[in-house]
Amino acid sequence: MYNKLQYISQGNTIEKQLYNIQQALDAGCDWIQMRFKNQSAKDTFALAEAVKFLCEEYLANFIVNDDLHLAELISADGVHLGLTDMKIEEARTILGNTKIIGGTANTFEDIQNHIKNGADYIGLGPFRFTDTKGKLSPILGLSGYFEILQKMKKNNITIPVFAIGGITVKDVNPLMETGIYGIAVSGLITESDEKEKLIQQLNEKLYANIIV
Ligand SMILES: Cc1ncc(COP(=O)(O)OP(=O)(O)O)c(N)n1
Ligand SMILES: Cc1nc(C(=O)O)sc1CCOP(=O)(O)O
Ligand SMILES: [Mg+2]
Fold first, then answer.
1. 35 annotated as ligand-binding
2. Which residue among 10, 67, 104, 124 is best mutated to probe the pocket of ligand 1, counting the most ligand atoms within 8 A of its Cβ?
3. Does 105 reside within a domain?
4. Burial readout 169-204 (b: 16 or more C-beta within 10 A, e: otherwise)
5. 132 known ligand binder
6. Is residue 197 included in any domain, yes or no?
7. pLDDT tens, 163-202?
8. CATH number at residue 148
């Protein structure tokens, strides 16, 4: 069972990334996706090794954005691949069945393809406009999630779906009502001055209907 909250890291330097990731871990986040764009291979590797070490210390899941070979090299828990990254089918062949592979989707058809190709979870977005990522796919809004999740239900499709893109605390309840599994957030956690309180609030909402 996956955690319902994934933190997507931010920062243009190794130091800034490590600071943000450590803060998220300290505040109780237990799933980190390292997203470090347009950096040298040397720096990306150095950061990945340090994040792997940190996540082991905090018993947090650690996946790498985009770079399957890096994920393999440092034995991360998995990788997140977008629609223009390495094909999920190929990634599955390389990583085997024990690693997590997430795939980005913007439509019901994307989800069908990812399932066919062996994805473990879906990052469905964007929910709304966000500065965190350039070249966004069409914005889904609540109605987009509702339609796609209804289609999944009708077609008996079950795979954990994480909403992503500009999500704030007040979006969590309505998003969960559409049938998503969890959320992936970056700016919300990075920019918060009260991270522990925020993560507690998010988890309360995300796990509200789970009976232990
Ligand atoms: C959980 C999750 N969902 C979607 C994305 C976006 O991936 P991608 O489309 O490859 O865009 P970049 O993050 O690489 O800019 C994600 N990273 N995580
Ligand atoms: C990395 C990413 N992927 C998206 C997609 O729609 O595929 S939106 C996004 C940015 C998520 O960061 P924030 O929580 O700061 O908006
Ligand atoms: Mg990508």
1. yes
2. 104
3. yes
4. eebbeebbebebbbbbbbbbbbebeebeebbeebbe
5. yes
6. yes
7. 999 999 999 999 999 999 999 999 999 999 999 999 999 9
8. 3.20.20.70
